[in-house]
Amino acid sequence: MAVRVVVTGMGVCAPNGIGLVAFGHALQSGMSGINFQPELKELNFSCQIAGKPNVDAYNLNDYFTNVQLKGLNASGVVYGVMAGKDAWQDAGLSANTETPDWDSGIVFGTGILGVDKFREAIYKVDQGNVRRLGSTSVIQTMASGISAYLGGMLGCGNQVTTNSSACTTGTEAILMGYERIKSKKAKRMLVGSCSDSGPYVWGGFDAMRILPRNYNDSPAKASRPMSATACGFVPGSGAGALVLESSESARARGAKIYGELLGGSINSGGQRNGGTMIAPNSEAVVRCIRTAIKESGITPSQIDVINGHLTATTKDPLEIKNWSIALGRSGKDFPYVNSFKGLFGHCLAAAGSIECVGSLLQFKLGQVFGNLNCEDLHPEIKKVVDASRIPQKSLDIAPQIIAKASFGFGDVNACAIFKSYNK
């Protein structure tokens, strides 16, 4: 019998809401989490706004021991642990304190981890104070530090690893965990991704001049996916986490189920035929979407909602065109489309996982969430999709199947298909 994979727990640490309740409310109501960052102004950034989770309002002792907090200077680790432990608890699971849980594993990705800690270490080494680095500098700066933290905190004894594929990282991690359960190598997988915050992460993008420079006085209006006046993505940070589980295991323990992951696809455009380090190969994007649909055992006509990558750059119209080609749908026949980046910016390696949590909340809340800042829909998009399919405010329409895609630097793609759960 084929293994069905369901989502039994979720956690999120996002710029516009930490925890499922706050995050869901923000998505429903269109509440922005993008704010002016004085530090960026002091450092002469052109774009002085960003999406950054407000973890200062939380007691980190609820997530870390005093020993773990000593010398902790890696925002991605903080975001990832908060989201991951919340997801585990939300799934009704507890940390295994005696022996490893051989049936539970972790795939938790990141783009860069502990960049502030790494900077701190560089200064100490250059000053000849290598002995003052502390015992946690390595684990805070190695990419797999986030999965190592979570693996030890939860006692997971199955595969515990980290992936990294730029903006595709989060969605890729989810599909990697899915494959592990489908192949019967694990019963449960905590999957997700995180991204550090701060100038040392965002500076390169500011230097590339692909961030909006004219909204420093009006941050909430800056991130404009699918808009005619979009002028670059707003950098963000945070973490999203999901507990994937075989439906047999979930039913056996009476777990609640947010939705079913039907399948997905991961590929690359090879940086050929229009694909580059920073731009997608359209043929590869179309292939990724079509393969995800085929692997999920559905037809394109069954997709109710697309949660796109849609970063508020000049590539948004091309993404919509690629979706139309892949699905063979256009106009009023097109699925509803939303991009959460209008609300909290582009959270880089954390984007896919945070947005997957948001996508699944649409099942739970029985709504299609609206889009912020695209009241002036791009004319090239209007040629493909009827404006009614890109709602400005949340709609009381309960979706049944949602397609979520992420496309990243390096011409890499991932698409996951989620379904409202039916026994």
UniProtKB/TrEMBL annotation:
Q: Which residues cross the membrane?
A: none
Give the Ketosynthase family 3 (KS3) domain ranges: 2-420
Q: Which CDD domains match?
A: KAS_I_II
> Per its UniProt record, what SMART domains does this chain match?
PKS_KS (SM00825)
Catalysis: reaction(s): (3Z)-decenoyl-[ACP] + malonyl-[ACP] + H(+) = 3-oxo-(5Z)-dodecenoyl-[ACP] + holo-[ACP] + CO2; a fatty acyl-[ACP] + malonyl-[ACP] + H(+) = a 3-oxoacyl-[ACP] + holo-[ACP] + CO2
**Location of the protein in the cell:** Cytoplasm
InterPro entries xrefs: Beta-ketoacyl_synthase (IPR000794), Ketoacyl_synth_C (IPR014031), Ketoacyl_synth_N (IPR014030), PKS_Beta-ketoAc_synthase_dom (IPR020841), Thiolase-like (IPR016039)
Taxonomy, superkingdom: Bacteria
* UniProt enzyme class: transferase
Pfam families named among the record's database cross-references: ketoacyl-synt, Ketoacyl-synt_C
Q: Which UniProt keywords apply?
A: Acyltransferase, Cytoplasm, Transferase
Location (main, coarse): cytoplasm
- What's the Enzyme Commission number for this chain? 2.3.1.41
Asked whether the keyword Transferase is assigned, the reply is: yes
Q: What is the protein's quaternary organization?
A: Homodimer.
Q: Which family does it belong to?
A: Belongs to the thiolase-like superfamily. Beta-ketoacyl-ACP synthases family.
- Protein name (record): 3-oxoacyl-[acyl-carrier-protein] synthase 1
Q: Which organism is it from?
A: Flagellimonas algicola
